Amino acid sequence: MALTETTIRRLPAPTKPVLISDPATIGLYLRCYPTGRKTWLYRTRKGGEGWKTQNLGVWPSVGMAQARAKAAALGTTVLPESVTFGQLLDEWYQHRIEPNYKQTKNARVYVTKGKTWLGHQKLSQITTAQLVQRLQTYAKKYPVAANRCLSSWKLALDFAVEVGYLTANPLARTTTRAAGGTEKTRARVLTDDELRWVLRLDHHYGPLLRALLIAGLRISEAQAATTDHLDGDTWLVEENKSSRPHWVAVVPMLKKQFGDFDGKLFDGRSPTAVQSWLKRNGPGFTPHDLRRTFATRLAGLGVAPHVVEKCLNHQMQGVMATYNRHDYEAERRAAAKAWAHELKRINGKDRTPT
């Protein structure tokens, strides 16, 4: 039967509920009840086993043309109740992570974990207990990674609520106390002896570690640098975590650390390899501790806090974030010179590094 507003109006009330398909629109049905009530339904097998149904509204409040338009739109999507946890994680990654972050490796790890453990689970049926149990198991071996995984899954499930796959986030009230591990906040600042160890290190990682100490950069930022990023006495840092433009003053001490490894300024080994080597051979610090030492020692030299923040390429806070767009170039260059002078003073001491 071809459905029109006229034929629908003339349909007699059935003795029991019946479905009448609309030949003009795939998946669109009119359900007629003995009471005379008529509702529009969209039905599909797409996205999983069995029929999936979505109510499109009551006729005549929702007319023929409007029902067809709704059904046609749904025909290009998967109904929310058909979406799996794995499909959600992929969609969240594609829409929220890949377009907005340069460093996506860690997020990809937690997407893969979720797909491996609960990927085929229907999103509409997944429970807080299931998610927490998986995270607790993960935390037994890798507590810090479990905390990051919890944060990633929370964001993905928030995305599910935003796009209409869920009405509530099952991890909304879950904290690391229930599904994660205890993290110790690092406050490691290198001593003078340890600074001398870095400054005198005769190893192919030496230039890289010294550059991190002198410039206050993250290891990934330094390792991404090429000779094209050097402009006189300025190092343009394009690959950075915050995606904000950044630069570093190139003082002579820093310039001495640069090499040319097929256009790269430093040895191309991965940050993980450097960290592993430090763990085996160093006095107990990580590459990121050099950045913390840089910031702490600058403050100790009397450099103003907002200048230190600029040297680290941190986001200014409060009113300064909105109104203060000054780059503090002169102050940052002065801080770089003062820090290099201090490192020379420390390195010049006669005490043997430990």
TrEMBL record:
Residues 185-337 form the Tyr recombinase domain. Keywords: DNA integration, DNA recombination, DNA-binding. It comes from the Bacteria. The keyword NADP does not apply. GO terms for biological process: DNA integration; DNA recombination. One of its GO terms (molecular function) is DNA binding. Pfam families: Arm-DNA-bind_3 (PF13356), Phage_integrase (PF00589). Belongs to the 'phage' integrase family. This is Integrase family protein. It comes from Hydrogenophaga aromaticivorans. The lineage of its organism: Bacteria, Pseudomonadati, Pseudomonadota, Betaproteobacteria, Burkholderiales.
